[in-house]
Specification:
Layout lengths: L1 H27 L11 H15 L11 E4 L2 E13 L2 E8 L7 E5 L11 H7 L4 E7 L14 H15 L4 E5 L3 H13 L8 E5 L11 H8 L2 H8 L1 E2 L10 E3 L1 H11 L1 H17 L2 H14 L5 E2 H13 L9 E2 L2 E2 L9 E7 L12 H5 L8 E6 L11 H17 L4
Parallel strand pairs: 4-5, 4-6, 6-7, 7-13, 13-14
Antiparallel strand pairs: 1-2, 2-3, 3-5, 8-9, 9-10, 11-12
Length: 407
């Protein structure tokens, strides 16, 4: 019912959005006499911010056209190399003969699209042949395509790594740290020749018993019945995934925004003042960030609930009790995949020590194949996007991959 109310609310706001868009143009366009009235700038700015806040954002595009390699621009072609019901494996093919390490970037399936990592991937492309898991919005996947849970996620990753072949490197950003560790553990136990050469885990909930955050506490304090009844809804018409059980993206977004509500209010107030003052660049930075941040996707209910139970409540991976399709997920089996863990000092999603716990679990991995890095002054988002990522974290990832590349 809540999802239906959300859809109705969006429809009801449509006339107001159209009027706001019209008002913005009317009081902003220099060809309009209304643009020269007292207070016109304030009215235009208010209309712009209102339309921005009430719009439904679709899936953004990666939009890469070129990268710089050895000081020269190189064209980028985006291609789908593997299409699964809930994910596309995308390749950003570079028009170059240079043979750089192949890197599979596993994007989080946690409410935002893989395009949240646009800045991450952009910084990686000059030195790596990059692939990314582009997860699909569950509300657009018809029921006849079947279900998707944490075990399916792990199976997808194994399938993708086998498709890419031996000596590939994998990087998990946040949520996928657990399924990536699980996939590599299973492949290692089975002596799979396509086990990755290195594994980078960034701000992931490997062991949420370490420095628990507000997100961790919420997951631990609520029962599975509570999550079932308060967070799971059926997709309404006219979406292709009609009647699929999902954790709606708008619910996850509201939870994240409420964690730092004052910051979001301040950001939009600054956007309003930038528009009034004619500071287009300042307003555009805020707009670009929120167009990405407000673009959300629904998660399959099976995946969401199994993740809550396995990762945040029962801590099965760090307790060495995790199973997947009858296979024991045992990180002790990892002995050929180098491990790099990265944490942010100010991370309020995955607390300090939660990702580093992977080193304790991979106890048969030699010390010279392990490295941990903590980025000072960086929050959760800052370790994989922004200036700290580009200037401090990315070089560590690049050097670690090169050190353990077998090509």
């Amino acid at each position: 019912m809540l999802y239906h109310i959300y859809e109705m609310q969006h429809t009801m706001f449509a006339p107001a959005r159209y009027m706001a868009d019209f008002g913005h143009r009317l009081f902003k366009d220099p060809r309009s006499p209304m643009a020269y009235l007292p207070g016109a700038k304030e009215v235009a700015a208010a209309c712009d911010v209102f339309e921005h806040l009430t719009r439904r954002y679709g899936k953004p595009k990666f939009g890469y056209e070129e990268t710089i390699i050895d000081g020269q621009p190189v064209a980028i072609t985006e291609e789908v190399v593997f299409d699964k019901p809930f994910c596309e494996l995308k390749h950003f093919s570079r028009d170059t003969e240079r043979q750089d390490p192949t890197l599979l970037v596993v994007a989080p399936m946690s409410g935002h699209y893989a395009t949240l990592l646009r800045g991450t991937i952009e910084a990686l492309m000059p030195d790596h042949d990059v692939y990314v898991t582009d997860w699909k919005d569950a509300r657009d996947v018809p029921l006849y395509m079947g279900s998707f849970d944490l075990d399916d996620y792990i199976d997808y990753l194994i399938e993708f790594l086998e498709e890419l072949g031996p000596n590939v490197h994998v990087m998990a950003v946040c949520q996928p740290s657990v399924p990536v560790m699980a996939a590599v553990s299973i492949m290692s136990a089975e002596n799979n020749e396509c086990v990755p050469a290195s594994m980078t885990l960034m701000g992931g909930p490997v062991d949420t018993r370490e420095s628990p955050t507000a997100v961790n506490e919420l997951s631990k304090d609520r029962t599975m019945d509570w999550f079932e009844h308060h967070t799971i809804h059926r997709v309404p018409l006219p979406n292709l995934g009609f009647m699929r059980r999902v954790y709606p993206g708008f619910l996850q977004l509201s939870a994240f925004m409420n964690m730092n509500l004052e910051d979001h209010i301040e950001a939009h107030w600054k956007m309003f003042t930038h528009l009034v003052e004619g500071d287009g660049d300042g307003a555009e930075k805020t707009r670009d960030f929120y167009e990405e941040y407000l673009s959300v996707m629904d998660l399959p209910a099976e995946f969401y609930l199994q993740t809550i139970k396995t990762v945040f409540q029962d801590h099965l991976l760090p307790r060495r009790r995790m199973m997947s399709r009858g296979r024991h997920v045992n990180p002790s089996k990892i002995n050929h995949t180098a491990l790099l863990t990265i944490e942010g000092e100010l991370d309020d999603i995955s607390g300090i020590g939660q990702t580093k716990a992977a080193h304790r679990l991979c106890d048969n991995l030699p010390d010279n194949m392990k490295k941990h890095y903590e980025q000072k002054g960086a929050g959760h988002y800052g370790i994989f996007n922004g200036s700290k990522w580009r200037n401090m974290v990315r070089p560590i990832v690049k050097d670690f991959i090169l050190e353990h590349h077998k090509g």
